[in-house]
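Review box. Two proteins, two foldings.
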Amino acid sequence: MPDISGPNSRGRCSLRRRIIPTHMVSVFRRPRSTARERNASIAAMDVLAALSAALAALRAGRIDDARRAGERIWRQSSDARAAGFLALLETDAGRYDSALLWNDRARQSNPSDPRFALQGARVAGLMGDHVAAFDRLAALLRDAPRTKGAWSEFATVARTCDRRAEAVAACIRAYDAEPTLVYALNALLHLISDEPQGEAAPAAVPTSARRPLSLVTCSNDDTQFAAMAASYDRALPDWPHDIVRIADATSLAEGYTRGVAVATGEIVIFSHDDVEILAGDFGHRLSRRLAECDVLGVAGATRATGPAWPFAGSPFLHGSVIYPDETGYRVTVYSRNVPLARDIRVMDGVFLAMRREVALRIGWDAEACDGFHGYDVDFTLRAAQAGLRLAVASDLGVVHRSYGSFDTRWEATVRKLVARHPELNGERSKETGFVARSVPDAAHAMALVDNWARMGKASFP
């Protein structure tokens, strides 16, 4: 079936007219049927084939032929797709009132097809009636929340007509009712402000209660290590800490085993060497979150179904990680379970924090994980099996400057992991597990992270 819902782009209200020369488009009028047309009963024709031919005429620039074909199909069949096609033609011609009339006919003919409701909302937006567009989209998403493209347009229109609070509430209701509905989660992320809200910061941890931190990292890259160390130093200006570098690790598990053995801090952070910390009060945030768990990360899953934590899919993924992109930073979130998601079973190893005694008790297994993959899943799963409390925080402002890869070395590690942990012998979920939003700089990234972490409050930014 041809797509009659109209274009979706980055224009006003995510709407844009297809560029069709206006001189080729005549004013819509219903022509009289000729005897020849009446005799050629379209009832015997396949409507889809007829619509495909009309669409081909449109693409070839034969606008009048396309319109006549659409009118003929509608007149003989009252098929909603024909009315939707004619609404599209009128939209392209800039005749929005006529487009809405045809769209109304399409929706009346087939009220169960959400594409016609979406088309009507887009036409209303093009007319400049953003309130009507918002109302149409809100009604559509209540009835058909999985309509492709509708949630992103809903967020855009909500900002345009200043109905952000209503849209936020709608996104929350939809996502909480169906936690695999990542379209609603994505719309919610784009509705939240990325500007500081001026709320008072939580009370600082008293100096006497600031437990010393040791940062353990495996790095053979001097430049990368220096950048990471400087970032942690900036994030911990008033916090006792030291950095343990293992430059010749044969595997992350082997390097971390050596590192924790010489670490002096009561709290140990195991970190990749391509990490940046954006939170200026990082030590205070970390201390508050560790008071509620035994092992803390920034991304993980409440279900262990495969050799990598993202295999669990929605709604089992939680946390937040920031990545650099061409415009600044890309804030990625996995759920609305903020600011701390508990009952985690497996975590990403980009950042893990815990008391030193926990790290020594569970231990990094260099025999099972003899490379640079799988060490995190193995460690955190064994910690969960030991009854420890695992959680991921969404407000630490951790930036990871690279993405993971499932290469041949990872595949070799997988075989060992599955042999050791049979529950990891599962397939990857088909449910998309994350949403993301780009912001121009670190200040906006942290503002978005903080506003997102406040999502559990009664009022939303």
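Next protein.
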Amino acid sequence: MTMQISRDHRAARNQASIDLADAGNGPSVIELYDAQGGNLLAVRTLDKPCGVINAEGRIVLQPSLANDMVQITGKPTFAVWRSGAGAAIALDAVTDQLGSGPFKLEGTSIGEDGLPTGMIYQGGVVALTSPMLVG
């Protein structure tokens, strides 16, 4: 059986995650890789605070107003969420907006089947789904 926590418990835990992510001189970022331990394709900078808590107690990440550009063409499948101090605070899968990963990208290319391919291209904008929910 999996432990279930209350909405208030989830909100408190997730607020602590936001506080940890905002610690440090720089902004919190999400790094997008083509595989765990693979090539860094893009970085998405988050605002300060990097997130807010919604009615369900989940984190809604807040991207910075400035757009970040894709550095290398590829298909991101793995993300590292880093604090403003540069420490890794969460690692998980990346999917397109239709996928089940916690880190979801918008605006990836569309394949011949009409579905998102998950590919991002050098010089393109890094766009996370809105709202970006974690926790």
